[in-house]
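Contributing new records

If you add data, match the layout below exactly. Sequence lines come first and carry their own label; structure lines follow with theirs. Keep one chain per record. Anything else will be rejected by the validation script.
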Amino acid sequence: MTGPAPADGGQQAPPPAPNRPTAVPEGSEQPVAVPEAPAAVLEIRGLTVGFDVPAGRLPAVAGVDLTLRRGEILALVGESGSGKSALAMSLVGLNRGPRTHIGGEVAFGGRNLAELSERELRGIRGKDIAVVFQDSLAALNPLHRVGAQVTEMMRAHRRMPYATAMDRAVELFGEVGIASPRANARALPHQLSGGMRQRVMIAMGLANDPAVLIADEPTTALDVTIQAQVLAVLRRARHDHGTAVLLITHDLGVVAEVADRVAVMYAGRIVEQGTRDEVLRAPQHPYTIGLLGSVPPIDGPVADRLPAIPGAPLTGVDRPAGCAFAARCALARDACAERPALRRRHGGPGHLDACVLPGPVRESARAGQDLVHTEKGRS
């Protein structure tokens, strides 16, 4: 729709240009607009999650800062026990309880989710922030047909007739790649394969067009063909609906396939984060280097021994004052006795790591000379 013509009869002035940062390429005097980053939909600041156990308080998440932007897939990776799921479940209060302590800020829609009541969070779960759980068989109600469960999710947040909601559920089943969607909507969870149940969970998560989708190990225990289908559904959700996806996984192949940015977690803290290419191609923290080094190559000669990070992750309530990875790191120095800050030391402005080692030392580790030892592989 056009506005009124100028009074002087000349051409209408163009609308003002958006306020974007500019950069001047080398050898040029003309600034070039730098595309703005998508708006942040979820901002985590100083998040802590502690669980009371017989030995004291277990610090599952120990001060995490993360930003999730519209339409991006942020992969949160790390070993089992690193705090990934504890962080994700705390965002919508799914791990609240008398022995759970959650602090910090989870900013979403102008509110701090960490301070909301259970009643207020129920209005957000499934509507604005949805969760796809790892064990779909346990997450789905075994006594109700899967189509009815997706329908219930929609009607819990929106006033709509049951028939309309069921038609939408069948449509979602088709979108996530479930064959014969109307017939399978009448199936009970145990009548579906693991891959189909996982796609039902994703359909349920997308039922109300959430701004954020938390996917907790969505491809675990699925064969590679079904994994590819599930990942394609996640990509389509972010492309078609602008959904921001927090993908929790330990599978670096999945990260390489779909992630835009990566955050590496160890002992409740983020030790490195950046774009997918920055983290996977130029890792800076010794823990990230060790994780990538322990992945078997898909080409070249088969090694007799597989690289491995020595030692075991921290599981007790007592944590070191300095770098939590120092006890397992062959490159540890005296400086590691103090807790390193997560900041930029290499690469782009968004590539952050929490390691105080000099660059040449980390370059040596990345070449595989110092960090990992090997264990005998299987024949």
